[in-house]
Amino acid sequence: MIFKKTNLDGEYIILPEKLEDERGYFARVFSMDEFAKLNLNTKWVQNNTFFSKKRGTLRGLVYQEKPKEEVKLIRCTRGEIYDIAVDLRRNSKTFHKFTGIVLSHENGYMHYIPKGFAHGYITQKDETEVLYQVSEFYSPERAKGVRWDDPSFAIKWPTKPEVISEKDNSYPDYK
């Protein structure tokens, strides 16, 4: 795996090193040793998958409050997403900044998002599936969100949202 730091403190894009032959390829998507060398989370307590039928489906921007903050490892296993992470850590030098990256089944990239970030994505293709691992169990009382189009973040989504849940569309601006 190749770990590339992003412009946000503690966030990485992880690229698979594909070993290819006539059958296809093999690539590692997690190694406790490699993650630990970079002081990244190695404990995953839950794996989740999301399937979206239509291009333009927007999910998020969501996070969990302390003490149930989550580290997330996001991977698109079918289709394509534009994945967003917003740094909500008030003491961070990258506070209130965001990163957007394309994850697809074709590029195999993964997005490592540390604690204290809001996360969301928009599908770029019909029939898209996303798999992600989290470091904390889901905690409904700690689950929060911020508005996907909050003007203070100035996120430039590449696709106009066509499908958004009522819940995701009702989150407030970040204060």
TrEMBL record:
Q: Can you state the subunit structure given in the record?
A: Homodimer.
Pfam families named in the record = dTDP_sugar_isom
Catalytic activity from the UniProt record: dTDP-4-dehydro-6-deoxy-alpha-D-glucose = dTDP-4-dehydro-beta-L-rhamnose
User: Can you tell me which family this protein belongs to?
Assistant: Belongs to the dTDP-4-dehydrorhamnose 3,5-epimerase family.
Q: Where is the signal peptide?
A: none
The entry's function note states: Catalyzes the epimerization of the C3' and C5'positions of dTDP-6-deoxy-D-xylo-4-hexulose, forming dTDP-6-deoxy-L-lyxo-4-hexulose.
- Extract one GO cellular component term from the record: cytosol
Organism, scientific name: Candidatus Woesebacteria bacterium RIFCSPHIGHO2_02_FULL_39_13
Write down the position(s) of the site called Participates in a stacking interaction with the thymidine ring of dTDP-4-oxo-6-deoxyglucose. Y138
Q: What is this protein called?
A: dTDP-4-dehydrorhamnose 3,5-epimerase
GO biological processes: dTDP-rhamnose biosynthetic process; polysaccharide biosynthetic process
Look up the EC number in the record and give it: 5.1.3.13
Protein keywords:
Isomerase
